[in-house]
Amino acid sequence: MAAVEIAGYKGRTFIAADAVRWGAVFGFAALCFIAGDKHPWLAAYPDSWVVPVADWVNHGMDWFVERFRDGFKMLSALLGMPMHLLQRLLQWLPWPAVLGVFAIVSHRAGGWRLAAFTTGALLYTLLVGYWSEAMNTLALVGVSVPLSVALGFGLGLMGFRWPRFERPLQGMLDLMQTVPAFAYLIPILLLFGFGPVVGLVASIIYAAPPMVKNTMLGLRSVPEELVESGLMSGCSKRQLFWNVEFPAALRQIMVGVNQTTMAALSMVIIAAIIGGFNDIGWEVLMTMRKAQFGQSLLSGLVIVLLAMILDRISWGLAFQDSGPSSRSRRRRYGYPAAALAAVLLSLGIVALIPEIRTAPETWITSPADLLNDWVNFVLREYAAVIEGIKNAVLFYGMMPFRIGLSQSITPFTWGIEMSAEVVAVYLALVGAAAVWCYRRFGWRGIVPVAIFGAVLFYGTTGIPWPAFMAVIALLAFEAGGLSVMALALASMAFILITGLWNEAMLSVYLSGLAVLICCVVGGALGIWAAHSDRVSSILRPINDALQTMPQFALLIPVLMFFQVGELTALIAILIYAIVPAIRYTEHGLRTVPSHVVEAARQVGCTRRQMLWEVKLPLAMPVIMLGLNQTIMYALAMLVIAALVGTRDLGQAIYIALGKADAGMGFVAGLSVALVAIVADRIIQAWSRKRRAALGLAAS
Amino acid sequence: MSSLKTLYSHAAGIAVAFGLGASLSGSAQAADLGAVDEPIRLAMVEWTGARITTEIAGNVLERMGYEVEYVTAGNYPQFTALADGSLHATLEVWTNNAGELYPKLKEAGKIVDIGPLGLETREGWMYPVHMKSICPGLPDWKALKDCANQLATAETFPNGRILSYPADWGTRSVDMIKGLDIPFEALPAGSEGALVAELKAAVQTEKPLVMMFWAPHWVLAEVDVEWVDLPKYEPACTEDPSWGPNPNAVNDCGVSPPLVNKAAWTGFEKKWPAAWEFLKNFQMDAKEQEKLMLRIDQQGEDLEAATTAWVEENKAVWEPWVKAAM
Fold it and tell me: What is the count of residue pairs from A and B with beta carbons less than 8 Å apart?
């Protein structure tokens, strides 16, 4: 609030120009609404104007595949080789050997606690009967993670060394992370041929970006003095890098490794959709197809546990405190020797008792069935309550946003007819809000009220496209100037002329609503966790699980409770996108410098003031990064949400997949990415501006 | 052109079978086993019915002396694999839900059909039995007209809701609603899992539900359903508006039972002539498949064990197919 006043004061001479711009845009929008009845092309972009970009892409794709297929097939064989070798090895080793080696490595990385965790997790995998599938998954991840890390590190280094390379790199990374993998599965399949290599390539594309970003960030934040002292002591360029810069940046780089590992494991399901590899993702896929909640949760848990093991081990190995020399000798020779002994011992045991070699196929069905029964129980007992919740959320929350109050107020939903009186009441309410905001914030306060008022009345899908484009363009301009506006306009134009406007609007509606809820609920949970260690320690494993658990597994009960439809889709997005909102809010609040907090306390801040006036503003940069990630996650989930029945861009991608229409998939996938990137750029620019206004250093 | 090609390759196959078979076993119709030392890779797709079909065929192929490898494969991606020879055959292709890769590759001559599987199928609108008290006129489709209100939801009001196939499987329900002129809206389910989850939930809560579905399907062994009686499909229904109950529209009828085919890599016949002949003869009975589905999905029996036992017990069914091939 203070910021707005300051900005308003400073920009007094520009107020007129600003106000005129908003006035013009609103006038134009109003004109579009009025003229929409007479000129239907304003309300809906005509099909006959659609530019067949998808067809062009398909032609280009055919040409490319025809020409380069052999090269890619060779590459495919090359990539497949280490994976198949690793698969053979892991399958050949009896399970006690693998378990032993993992336990020993875990002990080396994190002591007895980690060793116990790893052993427990692997025993679980064994007991639920997914050992051999889990080994196949490990073979896939065991190749995709090192490749992603190497590729990401190389690209990050290039971005660090040659700043000119950075901008195009950043754009590419954003695309790699936001274009849903389903959109490029068909091209990869055609180029690389059927098999697990397709999943490998897809997971490298998706998992490499965090490595690149963290490598650049880490290397860039190496203190100047450190580099200088290295130069003074006569380091060569190579020495400087490996002995000074790299160790100093290692912590941040390891964050990248961690994120890459998680991302690679979340792609296991994608790899399974292609097939050719009987891995854990395939098992999950089958249970999902049967809508067996318990079973899919138990098998999905194997993926979660594998992710946790790999994550904790890589983290531990990177940040060992180097102990005294006697211990380090044990480390150097003792661990490999123990690992070797474990392998030999298990091979010996297997030679004596061959039955042990084959992992047991037993399947613990009792916990799975118990979970299923529990879901059924809730479903039967609370059917009326669930129905009530569903209808309330749909009638009063979601439908107004989608089709607007103008269409969602009916006797069936709200119990009243949409009469002239109701419109008058609504207009009066909006008017009152506008007046209040004007008094409080000046004319700028009217802008959000007008936008919200129109969206709520006509719905996201009921806004004429020229009006929507004009408002977004001006928002982009206000936030980040001409360059952001140009990006926003170009992106919207692409979506429009490729004929995906309606789908994109549905996506904006669904993910926008989800992001809004994530900010409120996730933000609140993050604040709570930042102030209570107990809450924090409860939330952390839940967050880990939400991120790596195959999402559809969690959706089965949601589907059973709320049926196919947009509410289920919204919940699907929420449970995934809320994680960064929680994590970054907590992290941001916890890293507020303690001396600032102390100073504020001495000045006599109340708890409330401390949070709103001191901690939250200072944590804003981190929270904004969380918002960025929340948006990215929400849009990434559109594809999964399509599995519970949506009609947005995510569904368009599935339809393209079914038709093997690479062009259509590309266009729809790129549209998702563009929505994400535009939203991100506008919000980032706006937050930079605000931070500057608050006098916080831009970081 | 493609059919010419198949015809030609058939002729060649029979010629080969004739020459070599005659010298080996003396039987006029017999085919050579071919490359027994190289494994035949069969596509193992994700639904239980197809897995049963594949395991049974594979089991018999092994008894014939072949080496068989089962490779997991997605329903759409498997066809690229068949085209480049990294998979050799797939035994349960539902032509109503095979994506567009299958017809495209077939037309381009990159995969070949081995013929119908003989699985009696059914597709159409169905409902859990408790619907009868909600909409008493069922199973007659005309009853739906008066039940739109009971089936209406927030998203479809004032129309009734029919849960339809995922959007990427086509738009048959939408066409039928239009053709029959009933006040309904088809809501795409998004995935098979979503269809099944909703069916299970509707049975638990006795909520109203009408949905597009197909048989044989394992879930039909678990829940009691009935099918909506729709005007029987005829080709004229989709071409001639005057056909059927609605004189002004096409598609005013049910769905033709989907065809289920077997498909293979183009080099299959040459490489394993006897296996090819066997797969051509190989048929799957829907009742038998359903029985096995029940045992595997509901009673938790192991897929391999159950199918092996079936092959053991049903020699009379498959031995003639093998005899005709070898």
Answer: 163
Which residue stretches of B117-264 are H helix? 131-134, 143-147, 172-180, 192-205, 235-239
Cβ neighbours of residue B94 closer than 8 Å, sequence gap 6 or more: B121, B214, B258, B259, B260
Q: Which CATH number fits domain A56-376: 3.40.1190.20, 1.20.140.10, 1.10.3720.10, 2.60.120.480?
A: 1.10.3720.10
* Residues 664-683 of chain A whose Cβ lies under 8 A from any Cβ of chain B: none
Q: Is A616 helix (H, G, I), strand (E, B) or coil?
A: helix
With contact defined as beta carbons under 8 Å apart, do B277 and B17 qualify?
Answer: yes
**What is the per-residue pLDDT across A442-461, written as a single tens digit (0 to 9) for each?**
888 888 898 888 888 888 88
* CB distance A199 to A275 below 8 Å: no
Q: Which residues does chain B have within 8 Å of residue A399's beta carbon, measured at their own beta carbons?
A: 154
Cβ atoms of B306 and B298 closer than 8 Å = no
Angle (CA) A531-A537-A542 rounded to 5° is 120
Chain B touched by A288 (CB under 8 Å): yes
CA distance A495 to A473: 14
Q: Which two tokens stand for residue A558?
A: 């949601």
Q: Where does A459-565 have alpha helices with state H?
A: 465-497, 501-517, 523-531, 533-548, 551-562
* CATH 3.40.190.100 describes domain B122-239: yes
- B183 upstream amide cis, omega within 30 of 0: no
Q: Domains of chain B: which residue ranges?
A: 2-117+263-325, 122-239
State pLDDT tens for residues B208-244: 999 999 988 888 888 899 999 999 888 888 888 888 8
Instruction: Quote the CA–CA distance of A126 and A39 in Å, as a whole number.
Output: 65
Angstrom distance (rounded) from CA B135 to CA B150: 8
- Segment holding B263, helix H or strand E: strand B260-265
Residue of B55, B71, B200, B299 to mutate when probing chain A, most A C-beta within 10 A: B200
| Contact residues, A window 329-348, toward B, CB-based 8 Å cutoff | none
Q: What's the CA gap between A177 and A151, in Å, rounded?
A: 15
- Is the Cβ of A362 closer than 8 Å to some Cβ of chain B? no
What six digits make up the tokens of B198? 């909703």
Residue A364 contacts B, CB cutoff 8 Å: no
Cβ–Cβ < 8 Å for A80, A199:
no
The Cα–Cα gap between A312 and A335 comes to 18
**Contact call for A413 and B80, based on CB within 8 A:** no
* Stretch 39-98 of chain A: residues touching chain B, C-beta under 8 Å: none
Contacts of A365 in chain B (CB under 8 A): 300
Q: State yes or no: ipTM above 0.85.
A: no
* Of residues B44, B86, B200, nearest to A291 (C-beta): B200
For residue B94, give both structure tokens. 């539902």
Distance from the B320 Cα atom to the nearest Cα atom in chain A, whole angstroms: 32
Q: DSSP labels for A550-565? A: -HHHHHHHHHHHH-SS
Q: Report domain extents, chain A.
A: 56-376
- B8 pLDDT more than 50: no
Identify the CATH number of the domain defined by range B2-117+263-325: 3.40.190.10
**Over the stretch A469-481, which tens digit does the pLDDT of each residue have?**
999 999 999 888 9
pLDDT at A696 over 80: no
Separation of CA A319 from chain center: 27
Which of A288, A556, A655 is opposite residue B167, by nearest beta carbon?
A: A655
Q: What is the DSSP string of A285-345?
A: HHHHHTT-HHHHHHHHHHHHHHHHHHHHHHHHHHTPPP--HHHHHIIIIIHHHHHHHHHHH
- Give residue A297's Cα distance to chain centre: 21
The residue among A592, A455, A589 whose CA lies nearest residue A522 is A589
